[in-house]
Amino acid sequence: MSIYLTIFLYVLFGFLAGIFGGLGMGGGTILIPLLTIFLGLDQKLCQGINLVSFLVMAVFALIIHYKNGYLQTKGIFYIIISGVIFSCLSALLAGFLPSKVLKIAFGVFLCILSIFEVIKVFKN
After folding, report:
1. Which of 58, 78, 114, 123 is the most buried (most CB within 10 A)?
2. How many CB atoms within 10 Å of residue 93?
3. Contacts by 53-59 with C-beta closer than 8 Å and gap 24+?
């Protein structure tokens, strides 16, 4: 694959992840599969790329959501504390697991997520 095509794909995938992230779905939902399938990157590397890109996208999304009045801070402290604790524990676990296990777990997660979304559409 040429360097220009690779750069184009990175930009395209970043664009798509930004769209999904801005909509609240989470850019990693689309970014990780795109990077692993089309660029053949290792699952752990893709998760790291997703985390770094998420930090930047989240700052801008947070500012826009704040300006639009979509932020509620009640109970946020408990979410942040538990999120930090379990993120650290999960990152340690991910460091020990093979990439294939992470890829399967992420695929199962996406399948379960899609089932819930389909059910939600039909309920409404």
Report:
1. 58
2. 10
3. 53/14, 53/17, 53/27, 54/21, 54/27, 54/28, 57/17, 57/18, 57/21, 57/22, 57/27, 58/21
The three-class DSSP label of residue 16 is: helix
Give the other-Cβ count within 10 Å of 87's Cβ: 11
The domain locations on the chain are 3-123
Around Cβ 21, how many Cβ atoms within 10 Å?
A: 23
Q: What's the pLDDT tens digit per position in 107-121?
A: 999 899 889 989 998
What's the rounded Cα separation, in Å, for the pair 124 and 119?
9
Query: Looking at residues 5-24, what average pLDDT do you find?
Result: 88
